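User: I'm curious whether this sequence folds into something compact or stays loose and floppy. Could you predict its structure so I can see for myself?
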Amino acid sequence: MFNNDFKTVQTRLNYCYDLSTVKDQSNEPNLSEKANLILGKRISTLRSLIAGKSIPKHEILLTSNTYLVSYYLDLFQEFEGESDEAKKAQKLLKIKNYVDIQTASAALDPTRMLNLRFESSEVEKKLIENANLVTGLINHTIESSKIKGMFDAHKAQALVDQEQSATDTYKLQYEAARKTLSEGYDVFRKPFIDCRNELLDKLQNDDLTLEQREALKEQYKPKMEAFQDQADAEYKALKARVYDDMEANYQAEKARIKAEKIAMARAVKDAVIAQSTVTQEDAEKWITDKVTITKSVVNKMKKNGITPEKFHQDLKDFFVITNGRLGKIKIDTKNHDRAYASGATKHSVEGFVMLDNKFEQHVLWHELAHHLEADDSLRLVAREYIKSRSVDGGVKHKLKNIYHKGFGNNEYAYKTDMFNHYAAKIYDHGTTEVFSMGIEALYDEATLFDVLKKDPKTIDFVTAALMQTPEEIDLINQKLRDGILETNADLENNRTDLYQAIFEQLAGVVKFSESVSVTIDDLIPGDQETFQEWGASFYGTLTLPNGKELVLVKSSKVKYKSYRGRTMKGFYALDFSNYADVKLRAKYSPAAQHFNYGFGDVTFGIQTQDLNKVKVLALSMDLHRRAGYSIADTKGNIGEGFFSFDKLDNLKKQYLQG
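Assistant: Here's the prediction. I'll summarize afterward.
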């Protein structure tokens, strides 16, 4: 039996209203394939809800507009009724995050009759009105840190002082030992030197024959070797007395101090891990379900001597130490000098991390941590925290003026007393470096010790902010983000199947002939030079539906480079229709070229040797007037020929429906 209380009945009636609306939409003519897929999924979910089946809340919120509005009103009512100021601020920030994610979802869904501008403006207004609460939340977060005061600053300073004292003493002892050893070496070597000089004096006699000289050397050789052995033994004994013990003691003292530093930092790191609400098993599931690691990363691991097990464990440790606050992530690497993250604030795209050539694991943690700020509540408190550490009233400075000259004119930070000026950087889109720098410090205990000594407050803030108990809204927000991505993935998979047939039909409207109407002798000198440089040959002719003919030139050498720097070979589709004008210009400019490396009005460089793909790209480039770089495929990843299914739709309408 169904629960028949007022709210349950009202909710089911709202689902019925949603279903009626969706059915009306599904009956509209000329619906796109994307709209059909989404509407079908929504109808199925709404029917299950009306039948009383249990559905995850994030799926309901992506399906039912009436439930979404009701849920939002309940959240706002909870916010207004909260008396604890810190909790009130947290609730408001989480509502903002919720509204932003729903807005992103609605923007991607052409079937969703939803506009959250009013709700969004209401949240923004409340944020302004309650700015003091957000500021107070910073202090509350720091004060509630479970590791606050755990790091003994006095002990840390004592260790640093001991290390400095040991180093100063070592330097003095080293200089004294070096002087003693130098003087001793001269004394120990004197018998050898005297013997050698005696031999040299005798060898100065010009009356000696070659045989006599060799006999003289053999006579002195045992004595000189004995003197050298004696000198070496005496020097070794002296070194043992004045240097070896001193060096061993110094290294042992350094190792002791380092071990104590590591132990202090490790205790803090262990405490952060211990307070996490997620386990290694949870982390394993996250990696299996939501982390994509490209082949390039696997290959770079081998090259850099990082085992897959180590990389895997670092990912798990990151997930645990950040309290499981990440969703879908893709990790890649190319020939980049600098690592970066993208998609951190876009709820509609998969989080992306590009690792650099150094492939350092602490950098992996740094870039992954940028995606923590996909959560508005973390991003906003991060900005407020940095401002609270400003030493000059919250004035923004160019980073290159307060940190390093290598930064650009558009990179800004607050001047703070934090452990690193870069940690106070704020980007135009609102994200920061606070969590990235703080989490990166947690990767290595030696680094963590230094950061805790300089700025324990930042580590308190970062770990406390992440360790707030994930409430229902946090989990829903994360699942909503992942749900949007999963829907997009479903669409891509469906489109791939659908457009395979369309792709083949498009290839069929382009005719290919092995005959070619031009020879290399017909080319102007500049084009002949390029033709020979490519090691090219004329392959055939494509005839487009509009009658235009494109001559295919096949390159046998890897000469063409894509905009990402990857070398490539394939075909060049050349339009010779205006070649008479080119020849005329060449009279006045001997270096003129009609085609070169895939640029210009009439040259299309195509990185594939699949004739069907060449045909479709030729259609696309002729219609869109864009040169093509990359391999054409049925997913729409076709470089600058066209980027997306939308442009493949253009070809469909132009050549198959027109």
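Summary: The mean pLDDT is 83. The longest strand covers residues 537-543.
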